Amino acid sequence: MPYHAPVEDFAFILKHIVDFDQLRETELFADSTEDVTQAILTEAGRVSDEVLAPLQRPGDLHPARLENGVVRTSPGYAGGWSAIADGGWIGITADPENGGMGLPVTLASAVNDMMSGACLSLQLAPLMSQGQIEALEHHASDAIKDLYLPKLIAGEWSGTMNLTEPQAGSDVGALSTKAEPKGDGTYAVSGQKIYISWGDHDVAENVCHLVLARLPGAPAGTKGISLFIVPKYLPDNAGNPGVANSLRVVSLEHKLGLHGSPTAVMEYDGATGWLIGAEQGGMAAMFTMMNNARLGVGIQGIGVAEAAFQHAWAYATDRKQGRSRRENASGTITDHADVRRMLSTMKAEVFAARGIALSCAMAIDLARATGDAEWKARAALLTPINKSFGTETGIAVSDMGLQVHGGMGFIEETGAAQFCRDVRVTAIYEGTNGIQAMDLVGRKMMDGGEAAFRLLDEVAACASEARAVLPDLGEAVWQACETQREATEWLVAQSDPDDRFAGAVPYQRAFARVLGGYVHLRAALADRGGAREKLARFYITRLLPEHEGLLAHAQAGAEDLYSLTDDDLAA
Amino acid sequence: MPYHAPVEDFAFILKHIVDFDQLRETELFADSTEDVTQAILTEAGRVSDEVLAPLQRPGDLHPARLENGVVRTSPGYAGGWSAIADGGWIGITADPENGGMGLPVTLASAVNDMMSGACLSLQLAPLMSQGQIEALEHHASDAIKDLYLPKLIAGEWSGTMNLTEPQAGSDVGALSTKAEPKGDGTYAVSGQKIYISWGDHDVAENVCHLVLARLPGAPAGTKGISLFIVPKYLPDNAGNPGVANSLRVVSLEHKLGLHGSPTAVMEYDGATGWLIGAEQGGMAAMFTMMNNARLGVGIQGIGVAEAAFQHAWAYATDRKQGRSRRENASGTITDHADVRRMLSTMKAEVFAARGIALSCAMAIDLARATGDAEWKARAALLTPINKSFGTETGIAVSDMGLQVHGGMGFIEETGAAQFCRDVRVTAIYEGTNGIQAMDLVGRKMMDGGEAAFRLLDEVAACASEARAVLPDLGEAVWQACETQREATEWLVAQSDPDDRFAGAVPYQRAFARVLGGYVHLRAALADRGGAREKLARFYITRLLPEHEGLLAHAQAGAEDLYSLTDDDLAA
């Protein structure tokens, strides 16, 4: 299953869609020159193509397994992890003081996109570490930072996130894991956590768990939650892994996909942990790590979509079938209009989603580099849109890739089905896409829609100007933008949250559709008469109109939904 | 994984949506009284719930396997097959002279829906036999009919369809399997066929293959194809399985899903076969069998969607999480607007798809019972729409069911993922949904759209009348219908087939959306103020508007598609 990192696409998007130069003008990221950028993309692309892509099938065929309480990873994964670690890719955005590269999240996102496309189940491991690194950088004491960060960044140790409990699910506030002060500055952590990605493995010498737990007497709900770091092996005085902590892997899940990634049920039985951040400050620290992970998960979807597109393209351009009356026919199934429609859709969707994802990453970087509240609000707004659209794109494009293969797509050896199976979880983990949508129309609209309107203003201004050179495309994007604005006005006027929530997912998807139109329009403006203008025309003419139906759905309100009683709906 | 056959839904649809009484007024189906109908639905429902549903998980966990050239099926499948055979369900529409029940396809469709929902991989076996029975009834000699039909109908023998060859795929005309006359009225069939569902097994004593092959000197392409019946064991003089024929199972496919259904690569090495129908008349005979199977496959999708809905509903109403401010809150995740949106969507989609499928079946029955060409054209028009929308509904609803489960959905033990894996192939086999769409806008519009316009007239008339009592719903369906009419007018005016094909899939889906609106509107009219009116409001307000975006896509033409060259699209 060959994979070729789409380095040129990233270079184009950085230059023409997200205006990466803005970042280079800041003091913080002045070192991210064009040369550095190009070198980073090229080298990460090489590792993805040569080292990681060959691990994609073995991870599926030989899942991680639990043997005598220890997790054995898939063949080759230890080498893959080392290549990621040795290249410095885990700490790409981390503080250089601890061994990080100190590069923008935007570049890290491009790298994560390529590595996800090459081998999703392995790439999930560094993504977890990255979330932990960021949480520690922001919230840990200096002693913890000094001890853990160099190890995590070097990939000697790895990180996990422990949020979910069996009885709590998405309702994090219902968690019951306890942490009792031991009197020596440490805590005894006890409880069970589920869905712990890379909860244990044999690719690094220690596994550091960030665990949400409740201190004695803590209030109920999310405000009573604190965060702890609980390593598999307790560091000795020299900072090396010492005695085993009181924690264990109860079992690994048997999953639809992502077989190379060990998903553990973890049990903590008075395990020693250290508080990260303030007492009862767990949610704030968790959100640091979650927001990072949400961006990363959206990007996982896009990476898989890219790989599934390449895979289907390779099949289609090799598969001779039927006859075409057209000039320049290749004799392969790409001559068929419907196959071509599918392949064009796949390519156009990946491009749109990637543009949105890198815009989100840019907003994060600019917020950090400039301290500007508007960039911060932009990042907050785009995070759920990117997470959901990136993952939906991963699922839809992989599914279309399977369909392009016809009967072969249903046969596992072909490899098309693995993309579908692997990527499916991205719409669920780090907050389901439904939860992202509630975040978008709830918390992210607590500003009365200000951040949303500001972004739509930007889209409308570009579309309006574009009318002069690309009248049909400019007009279509402008219209779509205004329809989205009206829906947003309707939304923020609703006082009952359920009226917002009832259409939140369609609203979120429509927003992504409109932003995808903006991404493609900017690409068309930068490549007049070229392939990108043609692809933009395809997207704007054929895919963008979906937003209308979605926005009708988005504004339907909650009444009809709840007028259907449980008895009405019951099977 | 409990399954409860939705017997009431069928009774409602037969009475209020498809007007089953029309059929009872024909001489052919005068015996399908209300009592008979109810008895059939109830008993098939019982077999589905009690006998077949318990086989769903074992089939997935213990796939059919090839042992020393013989296929061993999943645990319990032999008993399941016997229950289907002994109940007479294989020959439900077959001629009573040969042991069939002689009932309408409409009732058979309801039965197949239930059995597909209970256990898709096993239900595929009788579906294959049903296609073969119909092909033999229409095209075989009396001697063949007398020998094979009673055995197939009784389930002592089973039937398969052998169309696809590795190099030919969807391009049936490219097949190269040969049949040479042996001079005694039989033929020696040689070649390799792939994707043969239930190509071998141990649940019946003989396996009868309908094989497409080419006679010596036959013209190239589809017109040179003939059809042969090639049994695994040659019948002896008493009509019992005698010596083994020269054919073998080369291998079984390792598939994404449907593990309980053995999908064989078959090799024929001078195997003895008998001609079915005229020499070079293979395509006509094949289409008899294909049209039957296409209806059946659309219904497979709906059956799985029903089961996935029930499964998700059971989970959601049992899963306590979060708090709701609403009165009558259950404390489960069904209180959440987005979960409720998903469950309502699932239920509404299943109902729409089922109404369309049974309308298609009714048209088939009425065409046969009355000889009326308009019914025949209606059946021809609805066949691809049902096949594609039924299967897309199966895929989309199963996927939503997985999402309702959250993290649990990705864990195989939950069972939600199996629906997704199993149903995925239905959008591919018996002609991919892309091929269905080409059939719809090509062959099925060779009447200048007459059959389509006639159906839209019917929808418009109902919607127009409905305005008096349900103004908003009537108006919305009427508008959607007129938009579909305009798109159809555009479509039939295109002389370049690629202009039709370029938007064929979106056109097909939009047509199904509009027909779904019609189905729900009729349900609302029949259940004023009841659950079905509320569900209709949900569908018409929220899901129907999707047709607009789809129809924009449908009318985009082929130019932009082909202006994107292979170089432009290349990864």
UniProtKB/TrEMBL annotation, chains A, B:
It comes from the Bacteria. Residues 161-269 form the Acyl-CoA oxidase/dehydrogenase middle domain. Its EC number is 1.3.99.41. Residues 456-564 form the Acetyl-CoA dehydrogenase-like C-terminal domain. The keyword Flavoprotein applies. The keyword Oxidoreductase applies. Residues 81-156 form the Acyl-CoA dehydrogenase/oxidase N-terminal domain. GO terms for molecular function: flavin adenine dinucleotide binding; oxidoreductase activity, acting on the CH-CH group of donors. InterPro entries: Acyl-CoA_dh-like_C_dom, Acyl-CoA_Oxase/DH_mid-dom, Acyl-CoA_Oxase/DH_mid-dom_sf, AcylCo_DH-like_C, AcylCo_DH/oxidase_C, AcylCoA_DH/ox_N, AcylCoA_DH/ox_N_sf, AcylCoA_DH/oxidase_NM_dom_sf. It comes from Roseobacter ponti. The lineage of its organism: Bacteria, Pseudomonadati, Pseudomonadota, Alphaproteobacteria, Rhodobacterales. Residues 281-440 form the Acyl-CoA dehydrogenase/oxidase C-terminal domain. It is an enzyme of class 1 (oxidoreductase). Belongs to the acyl-CoA dehydrogenase family. Keywords: FAD, Flavoprotein, Oxidoreductase. Involved in the assimilation of dimethylsulphoniopropionate (DMSP), an important compound in the fixation of carbon in marine phytoplankton, by mediating the conversion of 3-(methylthio)propanoyl-CoA (MMPA-CoA) to 3-(methylthio)acryloyl-CoA (MTA-CoA). Its cofactor is FAD. It catalyses: 3-(methylsulfanyl)propanoyl-CoA + oxidized [electron-transfer flavoprotein] + H(+) = 3-(methylsulfanyl)acryloyl-CoA + reduced [electron-transfer flavoprotein]. This is 3-methylmercaptopropionyl-CoA dehydrogenase. Pfam families: Acyl-CoA_dh_1 (PF00441), Acyl-CoA_dh_C (PF12806), Acyl-CoA_dh_M (PF02770), Acyl-CoA_dh_N (PF02771).
